[in-house]
Design brief:
By secondary structure, this protein is of the alpha+beta class. It is built from 7 helices and 8 strands; from the N terminus they run ααααββββαββαββα. Helix 1 runs antiparallel to helix 2, helix 2 runs antiparallel to helix 3 and helix 6 packs across helix 7.
């Protein structure tokens, strides 16, 4: 009985001692929750009014401030009731768990950070035509972890965001124009000045061509059986069909025009020289042909 009375007195003394502290801690924690919400709203409004872009980044900054106020309130509340050491142990344990999780999810973290950079810098956006990691197609979505591309054959490809920032990629929609480069060759017997004049004239008749951009023609190589050349011009580019149609048109036009002008689009040929030392000239004697199809 004496023991029970002693326990009750200790409990009564503990309650009387800690109750004001608990009450103060609860009030302080509620105050910091309201401060966190207020700071969150203020940051969002100020950021959107002053910059008006990158709303994802503003949400991240506001969330960081919000959790800072919440954690500060929890720490001060525990400190008032004398339990701050418990929070220190919890944070230490969380730090160890965080290190382990960091190794386990480092690729995901890298992709998320790359996704943040994509949303801040906007090097690519939806409906852009791009080539990323040998995947050519149109951007469907720029997510936090992956970027979705619909390729020309119609497949949906998910590219991890960290790949975009670890290698080079091409955005064909940045300038809304694209260059057509046609490579071919003509025979040794053709007049090269005439070839250049005809090719340039035909290229300027393409419907998709940008008239303010220069049309280029260069002979690039003396091949084994051809004079190789490049014909280059710019077109307005909105989607891949613009590029494919312009390339198809110039091929058809060059072929038809070269045929009318007696210009030969060359193909690989082999010249046989029987006049070398020790050789035989086939035209010194009549060649007797045997009928290999005679019946036995």
């Amino acid at each position: 009985m004496d023991y029970l009375e002693k326990v009750l007195k200790n409990w009564e003394g503990s309650v009387l001692t800690y109750l004001p502290k608990v009450f103060l801690a609860v009030v302080l924690l509620i105050l910091f929750i309201f401060l966190a919400k207020f700071a969150n709203k203020v940051i969002l409004r100020a950021y959107l009014k002053s910059i008006k872009i990158h709303s994802d980044l503003s949400n991240i900054i506001a969330s960081i401030v919000y959790f800072f106020f919440i954690l500060s309130g929890v720490y001060l509340a525990l400190k008032i009731v004398g339990l701050e050491q418990m929070l220190t142990h919890l944070l230490a344990g969380a730090g160890i768990i965080g290190i382990i999780a960091g190794f386990a999810f480092k690729d995901i973290a890298s992709n998320i950070f790359a996704g943040l950079l994509l949303k801040v810098q906007h090097p690519i956006k939806e409906d852009d035509w791009v080539k990323i990691d040998n995947n050519y197609g149109v951007i469907m979505e720029v997510g936090w972890v992956t970027t979705t591309i619909r390729t020309v054959p119609g497949q949906e490809v998910f590219v991890p965001n960290q790949i975009i920032y670890s290698t080079t990629f091409t955005n064909y929609s940045t300038f809304h124009k694209r260059r057509i480069i046609l490579e071919s060759g003509v025979s040794y017997g053709d007049d090269l000045d005439h070839v250049k004049t005809v090719a340039l004239d035909e290229a300027r008749k393409i419907d998709e061509i940008l008239p303010d951009e220069e049309v280029d023609f260069y002979f690039t190589q003396i091949g084994n059986s051809t004079y190789n050349f490049q014909l280059r011009f710019w077109i307005e580019f909105n989607n891949n069909n613009d590029f494919q149609k312009a390339m198809s048109d110039i091929i058809v036009r060059i072929k038809k025009r070269f045929e009318r002008k007696n210009i030969s689009i060359a193909y690989p040929v082999t010249t046989l020289d029987f006049g070398v030392k020790g050789g035989v000239n086939l035209f010194d004697k009549d060649i007797a042909l045997k009928n290999m199809g005679q019946s036995k």
